[in-house]
Write a structure and sequence with these properties.
Layout: E1 12-15, E2 18-21, H1 32-36, E3 39-47, E4 50-51, H2 54-67, H3 76-89, E5 95-103, E6 117-125, H4 132-135, E7 139-148, H5 165-176, E8 181-186, E9 191-194, E10 198-203, E11 208-211, H6 220-231, E12 236-239, E13 249-256, E14 260-267, E15 270-271, H7 276-289
Parallel strand pairs: 7-8, 7-14, 11-12
Antiparallel strand pairs: 1-2, 1-6, 3-4, 3-5, 5-6, 8-9, 10-11, 10-13, 13-14, 14-15
Bound molecules: 4'-deoxy-4'-aminopyridoxal-5'-phosphate (PMP).
4'-deoxy-4'-aminopyridoxal-5'-phosphate (PMP) is lined by residues 43, 193, 196-198, 216-217, 219-222, 255-257.
């Protein structure tokens, strides 16, 4: 598959207050964000021309900035306007929006108090090829050797670049072994999440279980799916889950802006059969994102 590199595309993106030609949206190699991971971002999805929960993503971006000890230098309305400008300029109807902030080049050391905070928004076409039958086959997950860090080891609730280092390592290892993604445990050994999505299980009685989001991203999709399930009369329990409990679970699925609701057929040695609950969640999430 030939990939069109992300720095060699046509169109415009928004950077520090204005639309700029896509290929010119550059930052210097000596940037604090690049060297010290002082960078936060959002992944948002656009359905039928409208971002799903765009304001919630902006609020999370602001919170991620705060957790990395800087302020998002624009207002919520300015951020919404920037996203809309990029979507309009690039004529995107079904796509992905990436809003992000990073510390600039004024200081190149641990302390970064005087660095400029840069903000940019990009968006690209990304239709959701909604084929429920393919989805229902489920994906396979390795169990990562890397663990989600404790809340006193990292700003675990930020969507921050640095937290993805172990995700990329885990996903590469999984792909080398023939899996599609990896399940990460947390620092205590409980089930945490996949490398870029939250995880849910269904037991034989039809109750849904999902790990407490106490040391990883409490995904916007995760919260949406919990509400959807409860509104349909399903029981959802947020709790600590031991890895060996997976043996008694019948269904499993991931949730995330990119993953939407993705059924899982295997995690390590444990097999699951995507069935009624997966199908209901896949379908109702798909209906909801297009309803707005
Ligand atoms: N965990 C991680 C590590 C992620 O990267 C994502 C995707 N943003 C999620 C969970 C799911 O979050 P959301 O539903 O807000 O996209």
């Amino acid at each position: 598959m030939s990939l069109l590199p992300f720095d060699q595309r046509d169109g415009s993106l928004w950077m520090n207050g204005a639309l700029v030609p896509w290929r010119d949206a550059k930052t210097h190699t000596l940037s604090h964000g690049l060297h010290y991971a002082s960078m936060v971002f959002e992944g948002e999805r656009l359905y039928d021309g409208k971002i799903f929960k765009g304001r919630e993503h902006t609020e999370r971006l602001r919170e991620s900035c705060r957790l990395l000890d800087f302020d998002l230098p624009i207002s919520d309305d300015e951020m919404d306007a920037a996203k809309q400008a990029v979507i309009t300029a690039n004529n995107i109807v079904d796509g992905y929006v990436r809003a992000f902030c990073w510390r600039g080049s004024e200081m190149m050391a641990i302390s970064a108090q005087q660095t400029k905070i840069h903000v940019a928004v990009a968006a690209w076409e990304w239709p959701s090829y909604f084929d429920p039958e393919t989805k229902m086959k489920g994906i396979t997950l390795d169990i990562a050797k890397w663990r989600r860090p404790s809340p006193d080891s990292a700003p675990v609730h930020a969507k921050a670049a640095g937290l993805y280092m172990i995700c990329t390592l885990s996903k590469h290892e999984a792909e080398r072994k023939g899996f599609q993604d990896a399940l990460m445990l947390d620092y205590r050994g409980y089930v945490a999440e996949a490398t870029g999505a939250n995880v849910f299980f269904v037991d034989a009685a039809g109750t849904i279980h999902t790990p407490l989001a106490d040391c990883f991203l409490n995904g916007i999709t995760r919260r949406t799916v919990i509400d959807l399930a409860r509104s349909q009369g399903l029981d959802v329990i947020e709790r600590h889950i031991q890895p060996d409990e997976m043996a008694s679970m019948t269904e499993c699925f991931l949730t995330g802006t990119a993953a939407e609701v993705t059924p899982v057929s295997k995690i390590g040695e444990h097999s699951f059969t995507p069935a009624d609950v997966c199908r209901r969640m896949v379908d109702s999430y798909s209906d909801l994102v297009r309803a707005g």
